[in-house]
Design a protein that fits this description.
Layout lengths: L4 H11 L8 E2 L12 H12 L4 E6 L8 E10 L9 E10 L6 E5 L13 H5 L2 E5 L19 H15 L7 E6 L1 H12 L6 E5 L11 H6 L5 H16 L1 H14 L8 H20 L14 H10 L8 H6 L1 H11 L23 H4 L11 H12 L5 E5 L19 E5 L13 H15 L4 E2 L2
Parallel strand pairs: 5-6, 5-7, 7-8, 9-10
Antiparallel strand pairs: 1-11, 2-3, 3-4, 4-6
Helix pairs in contact: 4-5, 7-9, 8-10
């Protein structure tokens, strides 16, 4: 659900055993060069600028699939149900192919600092692509930070307004998609506005049903193999077993990386060890478990491993500040997780029972009350009404503890799970049979022809 792209790439390089197989293509894929005719470009830009409530800036096109790229700032109500609260601008990166081509709209759950990401769907469908920043992140922050309007319904209305405006010129089929928290936002948007998109593809999107959903803890007791779970526990006990030496190494490496923590160093150290289990399964899916250092390792090597999976990065001042809108949403509606400590009794000094993350992430001046109704409504929608969805999960991703897998009874949606996969799972990581299912559904729902080449 969190971590930067850089961290994801590091973990992908070091741990992920899944091989990306780029052997699925749409028939007649062509490379589209950037538009060179200035008049055509000016006409294209003007057609977008003429839409209501948009500021348009042409930006470099970094992908050969697109003819032109733009940064849009779209006017949004701070409160869609009370316009007197004013407006803010929401950032959208728009990459243009053709006004009649399919539009793939990636809904991000956080900030979108640049126009570098492109969905795996784009080359397969020769589509347009847009990437939408979430309210309260990046450049999409209201002047008045009223967190009462940071809700799944308000965000869904943001995304509906984006689609409503751009559908005036983009007349083809629409796909909404998103990864992790963005996948959640994709689900929420569809629940409130089921007619906005023809297909929705949430990647690795949990559907939590409690403020700290205990299914996330239970999952960790049975994920992967017993041998790998034992290796993870041995690591945690080893680093805590050499407490003084490991704490000193933790302090030294934190200073070297210029990391500061809002809690005591001892608490940050122990929370990082507790987080390691979740982060390891989230990002590696259990890959290369034999490389996790154990009881024979030096304290410095153990702490290096802790930082390699970026467990301490969850608790730094900068991360907590950046991710605060997520933490607020998590404890208000989305759900989160805490840590059980039974297997580490006698090793911890700061914590001796279940550890809630609420105190770590929510400042005292906030009093966040959890509302269970929105996610209960989401669960009911998914079970009974959510059609034309492809849910993609990694089997060993810790967030898959609360995955939604359609049963095929009340809807036509499908759930595809990558065996041993992590939070980095995409359609291209699935088995050949699963890919064929995904692309046959896309072909059916989008009314296009897609060729899978063996």
């Amino acid at each position: 659900m969190r971590k930067t792209l850089l961290i994801s790439l590091v973990i992908l390089a070091l741990f992920t055993s899944c091989k990306v197989q780029k052997n699925i293509q749409k028939e007649d894929i062509v490379t589209i060069p950037p538009i060179e005719n200035i008049q055509i470009m000016e006409d294209l830009q003007k057609s977008i600028e003429d839409l209501p409530g948009i500021r348009v800036e042409r930006i470099p096109t970094n992908n050969i699939n697109f003819k032109a790229s733009f940064k849009l700032m779209i006017e949004q109500p701070v409160d869609h149900f009370d316009l007197s609260k004013g407006y803010f601008e929401q950032k959208v990166y728009l990459n243009h192919t053709d006004f009649n081509a399919i539009m793939v709209m990636n809904i991000n759950g956080y900030s979108v600092p640049s126009n570098t990401f492109t969905s795996e769907l784009v080359p397969w469908l020769s589509s347009n692509f847009m990437h939408v920043e979430h309210r309260f992140f990046g450049e999409s922050i209201p002047a008045n930070l009223d967190y009462s309007v940071l809700t799944i319904e308000q965000a869904a209305n943001d995304h509906h307004r984006v689609i409503e405006i751009l559908k005036q010129v983009y007349k083809g089929k629409w796909i909404t998609t998103g990864i992790s928290k963005g996948g959640q936002a994709t689900i929420f948007h569809s629940m409130y506005f089921p007619d906005d998109a023809d297909v929705s593809i949430p990647y690795v999107a949990p559907v939590n049903l409690a403020q700290e959903d205990t299914r996330l803890n239970t999952f960790l007791d049975q994920v992967g193999t017993p041998e790998c779970r034992s290796k993870v526990l041995e690591f945690q006990r080893s680093i805590l077993g050499s407490y003084a030496e490991s704490l000193k190494a933790f302090e030294n490496l934190s200073d070297e990386k210029e990391l500061k923590y809002p809690m005591s160093t001892e608490k940050a150290f122990e929370l990082s060890v507790l987080e390691y289990e979740f982060a390891y399964w989230q990002w590696s899916g259990g890959a290369q478990c034999d490389l996790i250092p154990g009881k024979e390792a030096e304290a410095e090597d153990l702490v290096e491993q802790l930082f390699l999976i970026d467990a301490p990065g969850f608790f730094t001042e900068s991360s907590i500040e950046y991710f605060f809108p997520f933490f607020y949403q998590a404890y208000a509606e989305l759900g989160m997780y805490g840590y059980t400590t039974d297997s580490l009794q006698g090793y911890l000094k700061e914590y001796d029972s279940y550890v809630s993350n609420y105190a770590s992430f929510i400042p005292e001046k906030f009093n966040v009350e959890y509302n269970p109704e929105p996610l209960q409504k989401v669960q009911h929608y998914l079970e009974n009404s959510a059609n034309n969805f492809i849910f993609v999960y990694g089997e060993n991703d810790a967030w898959s503890a609360t995955a939604f897998i359609p049963d095929g009874v009340n809807t036509n949606s499908v759930g595809l799970v990558n065996a041993d996969g992590s939070h980095l799972t995409r359609i291209n990581d699935l088995s050949e049979i699963q890919k064929k299912i995904a692309f046959s559904k896309l072909a059916e729902w989008l009314e296009v022809k897609i060729i899978i080449q063996d």
